[in-house]
Amino acid sequence: MPFVEDPAHLSIARLKSDLLAHNVALPPAASKKEVYVELHLKNIDQKNAAEFSSDDEEETREAARESSGFEHSRDKDPEVTQMPDPSDLTDEYLREALLKHGVKAGPIVASTRTLYENKLRKLLLHSNGDDELYSDSEEEQEKRDDIESVLEEQKPEEAKKIKGENDKTFSITQMVQEMESRGSLSDCTVKELNSSRVGEHCSRSYRFAMNDLDKSRSTDQSLYHTPKDVHPPRGMKLPQESGKPILKDLFPDTKPTTTGIYVTPRRPIKGAAQRPVQYSYSYPDTLVSPVTLERREVERRLVSIHIQILFFFFVACILFYIYVNVQDSTVLALLDSFSHCFDKEGWAFLQPGTEGTQAVCKQD
Amino acid sequence: MSSTSQKHKDFVAEPMGEKPVMALAGIGEVLGKRLEEKGFDKAYVVLGQFLVLKKDEELFRDWLKDTCGANAKQQGDCYGCLKEWCDAFL
């Protein structure tokens, strides 16, 4: 810290810390720099009286100029690092700085100013810290996100681009496997139109490929995940190069060649393909998606709905027929007799041997 | 979904009018007093601050914490209350 320096050239944070060091009460948070400068001058001026007394007016003028823009202070003050202190910024500069970090700020008024300053500080800290330590993982995350967006949008072009980027960091076997999954993805784009299930499988396989790639990157193991039935011949070669112990279990009969590559006739190895994968996702036995389950339920209901509709029309016809014939008095008498009969039968059903009720009905 | 308190339901049920700041969910006597001291004596003034912050949750929570020292739950209750009121009446 320089021994003698104009307080107008210091940032507000520096002024604050200096005032605190000299046990001076700080002004309210929303005060402008001039207030800090004055306090600084008043209190620390006592110790350096001779040097500052003549420069007071100039300094206040400079402070007024500097409070309106941050570039001035940045040039003069060697202590300020690349990031200007948010407290020094004007409302406009503050808003621009927030916009650079992707934050669309609302009105910056007295009550909101400190909040936005704090937000900018947090963003500056995060951006600095992340750049140094976490750049690799961020790139990875971006790539993962890119790939997943590819899955949703089904654009193989992006996958190619990502694959090109990944070449630098991944080993050759992993590269080829990526090509596999990318190839399977392009097939999936066609097959997805036919059946949603295949698309789901493809997307899952692709995602698992990426997860496995990440793991292998850390553990330096190569993958034995094969894309599903989509590319039968290609899928076998790569896993066999690396996943020998596992393939020995699967194919005990095959003889190892001199190069150590197992070549067998392809049959769908759902067990092997899914085995490394099952820890993260378990398929139900029937492999039925919820959509098909719903459709089955609806179909069940549909069948009965048809029957219900027919029955409804049948009853409606009967009623219509009755309504048409109701003018006829004979039919009315018929109806009455029918109703009596029903009553009689009801009683007879409930209490067998009730002749008294029958007599009652006949009387009516 | 967490259930809302009776205070929340009462506030969101009708336009706030001249309701005091203590009618807000999450703002009790102590916090209400602190807000009134700062000049936020009516619920609509806090609403004004909420709107000036563009209904941003993080900023509003920070503001509430700085202004009256509300804890996380109180911040959340107040934010939810105002947000729902705005959705209904604004």
Automatic annotation (TrEMBL), chain B:
Matching Pfam families: SAM_BAF
Domain of life: Eukaryota
Keywords of this entry: Chromosome, Cytoplasm, DNA-binding, Nucleus
Subcellular localization(s) per the UniProt record: Chromosome; Cytoplasm; Nucleus envelope
InterPro entries: BAF, BAF_prot, BAF_sf
Keyword Transferase: no
GO biological process: chromosome organization
SMART domains xref list: BAF (SM01023)
GO MF: DNA binding
Principal location class: nucleus
Listed GO CC annotations: condensed chromosome; cytoplasm; nuclear envelope; nucleus
SUPFAM superfamilies linked to this entry: Barrier-to-autointegration factor, BAF (SSF47798)
Family assignment from sequence similarity: Belongs to the BAF family.
PANTHER family attached to this UniProt entry: BARRIER TO AUTOINTEGRATION FACTOR 2, BARRIER-TO-AUTOINTEGRATION FACTOR
Name listed for the protein in its UniProt record: Barrier to autointegration nuclear assembly factor 1
Lineage of the species this protein comes from: Eukaryota, Metazoa, Chordata, Craniata, Vertebrata
Gene name per UniProt: BANF1
